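Input.
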Amino acid sequence: MQIFPPSVRSLWEKWELRFMVLSSLIFQSILILLGNKRKHCTSTWLRITLWFAYLLADWLATISLGVLSNQVGYNEGDFVEPKYVIISLWAPLLLLHLGGLDTITAYSMEDNELWSRRFLSFIVQVVVTLYVFLRTWTDTDLDILAIPIFIAGIIKMGERIWVLWSASSQQFKESLFPDPDPDPGPNYARYMESYIAASDEGYMVDVQGLETPSVGDDLIHAAAEANIVPLPKTDTYGPEIVKIAHKFLKTFKPLFADLILSFHDVLESRLSLQNGSGKEVFQVMEVELGFMYDLFYTKATVTYSFMGSFLRLVTLSCNVSVLCAFFVTQKNQYPNVDVFVTYLLLLGAITLEIYSGDRVLERFKDCKELEWSVKGEFDQSILLWHIATDICYNCVSGEDADNSTGPSFREASKLLSEYMLYLLVMRPSMLPNGIGEIRFQDTCAEATEFVKDRKSIKCKKEACQMLLKVSSESKNVLPSE
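Output.
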């Protein structure tokens, strides 16, 4: 029993390939229009739409290649029907779709880890395209036009594989250490020799003070001051902000690979940021995070390079030249609807290429008593500082809260603390890997037990005051011990 009547099946067989290649172009257009919006928008509908379009765009292009190879396989003998000749031009155009857009190559970090699977798929898709190309070869003008498009498709897919590979965790981590000479860090041996010599001479020496050299060491501090990056006094995101953010990007890249910064990088960046206002610092951070997004989710690393610019010129030239040649080529022997679809695919490829390239190109103090709060894992530091900020915010005296500068820093500190906690709990993918969700649940459970054991607590402020009292009584005990 046939579910669909013969007329419906006949109609689908006639329009199946055309529908799928045009649908692939539509989803590519959705990705180019919305791909960059998730950089500054957390809408659930936007994320669902992008996820849906990201998966369907590749899926439709792959299935279209399969249907295309199946249809040209029906041709028998040496004679190739004109309808098969023109649709064979769609195969390399589908490679352009599979090569991805400059503005979105990966939806999540996991996509970068699957670069080897994508590479294998790439090989299969190129083989299928070659099969279609050779199966319908008749030495006509359209066969010749397929060659530049095929070259452009290979370039686009090669760029995507390379970008996914370079953004994978292992390769990204290895790329951070091109210099064979590692940073030796503080000279602990010298400090221990000083300690032993002082002890032998009868001096009383504080061992804890020798655990880590002070960041105020004259030589180190002088070297860091020489490399201070002055923040521009501007309210706009001009070239100076972009240049400074790019410099800090090189410094803070290790944090996105779950690594720690060198001693000199910490001091140098701290001194640089201390010289700017809060607004200027956050402007630099915003641009810097935008760079990191481009690094992991777009082709920016290719586009901004000399080779990337050259490849972009090659692919765009291939597309434009083929469109111009197709326009003057004799097409009377081909179905009009297929000619129209070919025009749409060529115009779409050029438009997406141009639009995509345009979119892509578009006070701190050192406190040794709090060093333990930043020595642990990143998610632990966020939770500890959130609790400390909440306690201080609710326990501050009225006199301190009424001064002219206190309220602004007080509110800004609380907002920043709540935002970091929001990222940890609601957007963990934006932070370095860790066990933040589990640690957050454990911390909530511990806080609940603390309040239950002290039934006299009536409000949040009383709870904070009680926590502050406990903290001051156990000043010399680290929370993790």
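The chain has 22 helices and no strands.
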